[in-house]
Amino acid sequence: MDLKEFFPESGHIQRLYCDQCNGHLDLVFDDFSETVSGVEISINGLPVLHCPKCNEKYLPDDSRFAVIHLHEQAAKRSSDIVKVTRNKTNQDFGFGAVPFIYDSDDYKYIPGLKRPWDEGFLTPVFFNREVLLKYDSSPTYRLSFASTTYGEIRRGDDFSMPFGLNGNGKIVMWLGDIDRLPEAEQYYLRSENIESDHSIGSEFYDGQIECVFTDLSKEDDLFKARSEFLEACFKKFGSKIAHLDKEVFDLSVSFNAPIVDTEKERRHVADTLNKIYLESFDNKALGAVIKSLGGDPKSLGSIKRLQKVIELSCPALDASTIMSPFYILYDLRVAYSHLGSDESEEEKLKFVTDRLDIKADSGLMEIYPSLIEKLHESFTKLADSL
Ligand SMILES: [Zn+2]
Fold it and tell me: What is the 76 CA–ligand 1 centroid distance (Å)?
């Protein structure tokens, strides 16, 4: 290779996206071994940006300069061989009351994170995803989602801390943000803190660093609408009327639109939607809200309780119409799970398609998009009205 190739082309900035497929790159530590303009250069552990899809590799700017520098030193010594093992930077940026596990190389070599006026602030810190569940069940904090993989931990109206979920299912937050948490919270976070996997490409990165908001999938968009509705409820009633347990969160993240209409897929889709959008409502919390509004929650199931809350707090709304998609989802699961007799199953399905206003013989591929759209409409209307 020619040394010139290591000088970045003028105007070229190495970003976190692959030139071939535009996918996110991961930081890896590679063994570099090339003859560069007559000098055999070997570096152990050189930071390299790697595309897991195309297996393409790109050199971050500082890695390019490292090669150039070694070549220069070899030339000064009139040597034609240089072998080095790179030491990790292991820099302590001084954030946090508690020493968090992070890799300062991430900050230095992942494109877009350096802020000379705020050294180390945007260092990614990695956590087990269970960390979110604790914030969801805390009375002081709440979670809000812009998609299933990008959200914020909020406290009151003035504190929010963004988080993302990377491709390996790990939670990522910025070191500088963590520093703003009370010390006790930092100790808690530290207990779920894990080593960096150097993979930060996500909606979180796109939104936070590139200010790019990718078009959401219908599923992500629905999850976001649910989150906005729950946030509106929290503001209005001061209570979390739904919760996120591990199963619901895992299902939300892994859930995709059906691509085939089979018995198994029907059951899976109806079950999953039920778990995320119906079973996650907190009956007790809904009951308490009803009581606070002067109603009686006795012997009502969660959908009815939610309807009661709407009737009591937004009398101008047509609560039964707005709640209809929730009942449809419930009935769809009963029909698709063969929980009733054959006859009632057919009736139930007919009742589902009637209310969705689609053909009676519609299968999963027609029912699903229609139901998702109607649920989305309801969440949005409810959030606006509250
Ligand atoms: Zn690629």
Answer: 38
Distance of CA 28 from the midpoint of ligand 1 (Å): 15
- Is there a single domain that holds both residue 140 and residue 275? no
CB 132 within 8 A of CB 170: no
Ligand 1 centroid vs 18 CA: distance in angstroms? 5
380 part of a folded domain: yes
- Cα(54) to ligand 1 centroid in Å equals 4
Considering the domain boundaries, does residue 93 fall inside one? no
Distance 22 CA to ligand 1 centre (A): 6
The token pair that represents 55 in the structure block: 């297996």
> Are both 200 and 269 inside the same structural domain?
no
Low-confidence ranges of the chain (pLDDT < 70): 340, 342
Ligand 1 centroid–CA 147 distance in Å is: 24
Give the span between the Cα atoms of 306 and 300, in whole angstroms.
Answer: 9
**Burial grade of 321 (CB within 10 A; 0-12, 13-18, 19 or more):** exposed
Token pair in block for residue 219: 């599923």
pLDDT in tens, 200-242: 999 999 999 999 887 888 999 999 999 999 999 999 999 999 9
Measured in angstroms, how far is the CA atom of residue 321 from the centroid of ligand 1?
A: 47
Per residue in 337-353, pLDDT (tens digit) is 877 676 778 888 999 99
pLDDT for 64 = 93
DSSP 8-state code for residue 24:
B
Residues 285 and 371 in one domain: yes
pTM given for the model: 0.86
C-alpha 57 to ligand 1 mean position (Å): 9
